[in-house]
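ok so for the tutorial part 2 we go from a plain amino acid sequence to predicted structure tokens. step 1 is just haveing the sequence, like this:
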Amino acid sequence: MISSLGTVLSHHLRRWIPEPFVFALVLTVLVGVLAITLTESGFNDVTGHWYRGFWMLLEFGMQMVLILSTGYAIALAPIISRAIDRLTRLARTPGAVYVLVLVVGGLFSLVSWGWVVLTAVLARELARRVDGVDYAYLVACVYISGQPWVAESLPTSATLGSLLNAAYVALYFATIPLLMWWMRPNRRATMTMDELRDEDEQVEQSVAEEAERHRLDGKSVSDRLNNGIWLQLVIALAALWFVLRHFAANGFDIDLNIMIFIFFALGLLAHRTPMCYVIAMKRACANVSGIVFQYPFYAGIMGIMMFSGLGAMVSEWLAGGATLQTLPLFAQFAGDAVNFAIPSAGGEWAVIGPSITETALSLSAHLPPHEQQAFLARIAMAVAYGETSTNLLQPFFLLVVLPIMGAGVVLQARDVMGYLVIPFVFIYATSALLVARVPM
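step 2 — the prediction. this is what the tokens look like for a chain of 440 residues:
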């Protein structure tokens, strides 16, 4: 029954879900109208807030572009292709493919959310090798596999190392692969990768084949520089030396910048020559166009909510009647709701975090300092859990997966979103139970 429900939802929601960019435009208009209606900002003020916010997340947007492109460039290396070949031996049926992608992708996401590109490459290769895999459903599995990323985004002992966070991660691995195996489309409803293939798409050469095609005679100075390994090897080893020194000095402190730096170093090593790495990065960067031009629109929405006071108004309204026991649930719902407009954990926290934190401090003022700190950590995690669960209904981050898995096939975000509704309900409900009941 649940399998049929997932298929029915997927079929009907295709008629309602537009392109991710249309989603961003609709949200821009909606948030702008709410700001004009509910705050003291007029139309001129709101357009000014929108413009001001448009440029606020350029650094983070560039980090997103780099972590995805450098991660995908690694996935294009021959050594990764061989590793994927070995992994594919573990899955011989469509159900096993879905479960393997969810488990491996969940492990990848604990390292970095950017590693979803590796999961996408793995899933694409599995779909090529195993008959009967429903391709749109497989894309949904890849997308869902990014849920545990929130665990690596909360890097303090009060959050990452907490019992609550451990329970959240354990719940994912214990239940989500089983749920998605149970939901898998039946054979009659399955649309495989071959059935979705775009007949006009040309077969792409491997990175090594394209690099060979660019050679002149193999003896010229330019060929020797382009295809030599020593220059690139020196740079990669220097980068890794810095990374080792960083971890020795700071412990396992891993933020987006150090992760991108690691990806650069590993990509240089994996591709060996400058020409191969240039070709790999050219292909990888072709997959981030949606993020490049859409993320500023979401930054603009964040600007409207932040500078008009609408964001603080929403969070205060959501948390206004909360108690010490119910505030975590209100915080989770706030993270859930605001994420539609601001699909960025940091940007969302900048908008609603101050007012929710103020409420949390007020409600917990009578607690001992260590209990108050634990309560504030619970509130931060509740917002993060709400935010990450809503990603399943917010098509923006599908732009990370679709360019890889959609290459050469006719597939859109609306073909995938219907399969994410039931997992969203399950993840939101179970994480709310954890937030309310599991001690820190």
